[in-house]
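Allow me, if you will, to draw on your knowledge of protein folds for a short while. Thank you for your consideration; the sequence and its tokens are set out here:
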Amino acid sequence: MPRTFFLALTEVWFWQLLSGVLFILCLGLIIYRPWRYSGKKYLKRLSKLEKSQLKMMASGMNWDKRLSEAQLKTAERLALLDLRELAKQIRENMDLISKDAIKDERKYKKALMKVIGLKKKFINAVYVVGLSGLEVPTDPFNPIYDEVREELKGPKTKKLEVKKQEDSKKSVSKT
């Protein structure tokens, strides 16, 4: 048996096989880079997660606790309010592009790339909100995004309504 091993050392196929295995091993180490994923970093990340969980539990929020329906609606409205700005920017830029207001090709491409970037941000934000268990529309042109602000303002007081009516009467009488 040892004699056949030494005979194999003299063969070219053995060295080709060995060099191929070593090449694949080195290539795997270059691509995978296991030193980036060391045990220390993993343990550190795990301890951060445990600390955040302890903070949430100390504040009275449990990981498995379900939100009541009112809290869920409020959370959805707040998420919609956050997404409203991105939707508004997307709409404005799309209007600029669709109205052919941009005659220069460079400006058109720049505006188009801006819309694409805003849509990526919007989709990522919707995805994150979806991961939290809330449902929001994925279309930035959905009218819900316009209605959210009025809902969150709440009912207006009569004093404000009277004051606005007086201001509108004054502006009409001036013209």
